[in-house]
Amino acid sequence: MQEINITVNSKEYTLTVPPYMSLLEMLREKLNLTGSKEGCGNGECGACTVLFDGEPVRSCLVLAVEADKSEVTTIEGLSNPDGTNPIQEAFIAEDAVQCGYCTPGFVMAVQALLNRTSEPTDEDIKEALGGHLCRCTGYEAIYRAIKKLVK
Amino acid sequence: MHKIVESLNYLGGKNMATIPQPSERLDARKKTSGKAKFVADLTFPGMLHAVILRSPHGHALINSIDISEAKKISGIEAIITGKDVADLVINIDIGDQQPIAVDKVRFMGEPVAAVLADDKWKAAEAVDLIKVEYEILPAVTDAREAMKEDSPILHEKQEDYKRHGETNFTAGTNVFSHYKLRKGKLEDIFEKADLVLENSFVYPHRSHTQIEPHGAIAFWTNESEMEMYSSTQSPFFVRTCLADMFAIDPANIIVKAGYLGGGFGGKSDVTIEPLLAAISRFVPGKYVKLTLGREEAFTGSVIARGAAVELKTAVSKEGKILGEKVKIYFNSGAYGSCSLHIVTAAGHNSSGPYEIDNMEVDAYGVYTNNPPVGAFRGYGHPEVHWAKERQINLIAKELGIDPLKVRKINLLKPGSINALGQEIELENGDLAGCVDKVAERLGEIELPAETDNLVYGKGMAAMMKSPVMATNSAASATLRFNESGSVDLAVSGVEMGQGTKTAMRQVAAGGLELPLERIKIKEDISTDNSPYGWQTIGSTTSWKGGMAVLDAVQKAIDQLKANAAAVFDVAVTEVEYADNKLYLSSDPDKILTTEEVCFGYMRGNGYLLGQPVQAYGTYVPPELTHPDPETGQGNCAAEWTFGAQGVVLSINKNTGEITVHNLITALDAGKVINPVLARNQLVGAMVQELGGALTEELVYAEDGKMRNNNFTDFKIPTPEDVAETKMEVYFFETPEPIGPFGARGIAEHGTVGIAAAVGNAISDALNIEIFNLPIYNEKVFMEMTKAGDLVV
Ligand code: FES
Ligand code: FES
Fold first, then answer.
1. Does any ligand 2 atom lie closer than 6 A to the CB of residue A34?
2. How many CB atoms lie within 10 A of CB B418?
3. What is the domain extent for residue B496?
4. Average pLDDT rounded to a whole number, residues B762-777
5. What is the pTM of this model?
């Protein structure tokens, strides 16, 4: 067991975690932040994406102990104080959500993209979605939602 | 487009020209903010975790299992092997499977032992310490191989299995089911025909790969009372199966289903529930959670498709199909129940949307050493359409005529008799209209000229789909007015992304003429108090569930009228309901609001007239029968959905790389309840099937080991794959007389013809013919470099 200090969604925590626990497991099991999903546990689907010191990472591939002294933002931490978030609104407006299991990962990927640039090119968008899998939507509505945000 | 509104028989023939439209999907806000809870997100105090030891072999005898080392790990609550639960049999249709293998494993991934511990890592550690001695047996992974006389046999004593209903098996072989269809007579048709074309087509196994892997949590109060949360499309079906397995009353089993992270058929029937129920029964009073990892979801639930289809078609020189012999070999994996009816569905639909007077169909369900096959979006239809719609183009090529012409002279039309012997009526949908629409769109799309690198092609497929279901496959709904005049609604279907709850709320609002916001729909299902529903499958939920909602609406309106009649002191026949109000037909100025009477009407002195309005609606598809054992015909399909699909693609001549530019579907939806949801269902289905057309195939070693049970090696479509693809969906609306507001099922239909349309487009581009899916880039490249133009 190891002690770590971590800031998640602007709250500071001191946690004791086993060395083999992933960041995803820590978020879900220790902090009850179940918005980040496990689709593969192997870095292949993107459902577990969170912002780690501002960068999008697959939290299933990061060990909790590696997150010591870092800052993490999850889907639960995205909303503005009034409970809304433009990315979420765009996904809702374009019906880019079906089963919703992949959605938190996609929303985080888009947030990371928009943090980098407010005017991403089509190539930037494709790159940001690289490695994110959705089995329901066929991606059309997700692309539409993103284009709506950058227009 | 036909409008046959007068044939509608719901709500006194009322047709909803405009069904109220919500601005967003009911659950979208919860799902985009991470608040929606899936089974994996639930925990309970003191909950144990189950980890499963699975067979690494495709076919082997279990000689011994040694758990002594595993037991030493602290925190282990129970270790269960097949011998501990040897009396339990999973008997959906055929009692051929047990929750944990007892003497023999029949596929890689079959459970061999389970460990329950207070922490999942400890359980996993203990699993690693269990020693199993296997005696490896020869394996078979192909259906046609498995039917040969010298094939290894998976189930030596099929005749001993208990069965629910008829399954046409052959003892001593791997054939567990044989569906036969006979229509007309083939006799000398092949001798007389201008053209006889024989081809064999393969649609291999795929994995559903819902992004949410299967999960469930069970809690036994005592050994005959259980509660389970499961990622299931079919909570009531799970309950039935578990009750049968444990021989306890279904009322003592409660199955709960909330949001589902994708189903596509792979979470219908039962998957991990019998296993979890069997092992958690050893620790009554404790919650036990089982969630599959991704690799386990590939091997430890059900897989999809897997059929070889052989067609021998007799054709006139004009392209009219005179007769056809069809053989379908389903590679059903190690256990048969979950694919039994797919075999039948494929048989029913193997004619494609064509009138063929003389047909002989033999469809076999065959055991192999692969994970069991279960339902997958399209349910037998994409498999046979892959064959049939490719065959149509091959016929056209042989005859030197346009494939569209061959399609059109053979299409089912009003008055045609389909393969099942049912007469097709106008109200079944505008098949020719859909075919014309796709042909027209393909005609309009201008292709760039061929370059040194790129060559373009267009292809289409016509299609039809009918759901296969139990003849008593009911859906139901409850509708209850609140004191404020708002409504609590519950419907039996599970929400798995198809938007069923959103659509059912619209149907209720339309029927009651209430604003959407006044209707609250229950989103989860609990078998102890939710309205009964057989399964959430076959794209039948909006149809059957919608009919159940309308039945409840009708009954609720009748009760409102009765309450109002008591107030007006008139016969109930003198009261009308419209626009959320009740009034006297003889004096329309005498009005009561729904709110005033929905809880009964209270006079000033407290005296209550009438009673609170609560209605239970049900729907069972009318007059369904089992197929006749000899002819395979009968009224086995309650509704048909017709359509057509098209594909435009380009191929890189240097690499074989395929880029899809357009995916097109035209479908007769009957009535589109929610255009946004409907379109997105179709788009999702088209892209999902594009995976089957181009990349998805489960690969096995000779010994039955699955080689690509991960997302790196089993490639499903990615955002990049369809970044440049234009999706086109066109709905026709020929009302379905037995559908809510005329609607019929649409959610799976986008899958049915895509693979064949892709194959036909490749033929168009390169004049090479592909018979086996998927059409990898490399496969195209190899075909291009081969000499000759007609190759396998
Ligand atoms: S769960 Fe982390 S990438 Fe799939
Ligand atoms: S919405 Fe279901 S996986 Fe994306």
1. no
2. 23
3. 7-36+472-619
4. 96
5. 0.95
